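Exercise (ungraded).
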Amino acid sequence: MVRITLSLVVIFLATSCAPTKIVKPLDEGQWQIGGTVGRPRINDGSLPILGAYAAKGVSADRTIYGGIQLSSALLGAAHIEGGQVQHWLPQNGLQPAISWSAGAQALMSTRDYAFRLYPETGINAYWHRGPHILNASANTWVDPTWFLTEYGRGQILAPSFSAGYRFRYRFIEAQVEYKILNPTREILVPQADVPNTFGLGAKGMYWGVALNF
Amino acid sequence: MRILLSIAAALSLFLTSCGGDISAAMFAGGDGTYDFKNEWLDPQYHVDETKIHLMAFSSDSDTIYALYLGDISQIATDTIILYLHGNASSMDNFWETAGLFANLGGPHHFGFMMYDYRGFGWSTGRSTGAESMAADYDAVVAYLESQGLTSDRLVVVANSLGSLPAGPAAAGGSRIAINKLVMEVPQSTSNVIMQNATGLSLPSSMITSYKFDLGKNMADYTGELLWMHGTADDVAPFETAEAAMQQHNGSYYQEAIYPDMGHGLRWDIGDEEWAGTILDFIRR
């Protein structure tokens, strides 16, 4: 009786599956342009969520970024994001460096011009040695319009947790990240099984490639 | 930063002009064989094979296929059950359900009709949203009306996806007014589906033009309603369906709630309980 329609799920998850862009701030004056592919798990497979971003190191400690979610846009929702990543604590042996981020996600329907703005903040612990960057990150979107969720099912916070590896060497950066999405609530997609953690949230792998110049 | 965001916004808006919409992808229509024979039914649900009628109707520029079980000549006098099926490829998947309905209250006690929405089974075209679903429903009801069916003898039973066309029809959109409606494992609103899938306060208009609100439909429906649902339904969540169905303000309201049962309600609770509940509602 039940059959999953893949494209439906792609879109439903697309709106909440932005990967971490910058973990370690760029050098001052350095630019990074990249593309990301999110692969949130669904049923026995995963789904491609496409995004692109640009970032610039405005100081030795601070990088700003802006990006778009392509999958959402193709279905009629303009979805952009922007923010900054700020270096906080230096790496000291095995003690990781710490950075924090702040930004926002903005979505607007081109059908009825419904608009949503989700501020977000996160913290990254990372170890950097040569071209290798290992990170563990926690991030949360804040839903200031949670009360617009129908039948009282809204939540103010939509957190995610991730661990990843980045290879940053000269002009190239490659990224891979495992992410647990929204583990504070049950994600329901009609006629689909969403792999989760202890019955909550969703999860998936994210890849990215970027050019530094 | 402003430059980055401006470029991102411009590119994003440009891409939105592609006009994508997931509404067509919501529908799981597929091939059908329409091999409606007793050999696929449990003996207790066998039908008189002379009373199996496959029909085709025009709906806009598409052709909708329907199955009627019973004597066509008695549509003018019988109570007719119009079944709006769930999100499976075709009526093939509901042949067993049809057999059960054909034996509800006794062999061919009620007339029974179901149909495939556009893009399901042999029905041509693609279902895309409220308009196509309403047109398909109307094509079938127009036929029943032409055969003499009246409001007092029409029972609409909507399963899962079928609740989407049933809601607006019950709220005044049916050329034969609905006075008895069974909502089996219905959805609630298009926004709820979006919000349950993202965990955010996003409206469904972000991804589709197909907007439905069964709560509002039920508030506008004046007839009798039987709502059947399992509390462990993870396709049409119980809590939101409950909130929508309880908007009903019509002449009679009945709930049949089954703890720990899922979306395949008939299979979970058994044919006897399922059929008995519906039969009692029809006869009240």
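Further reading is listed at the end of the chapter. For now, observe: The helical segments of chain A are 6-14, 70-74. Chain A has one domain: 6-212.
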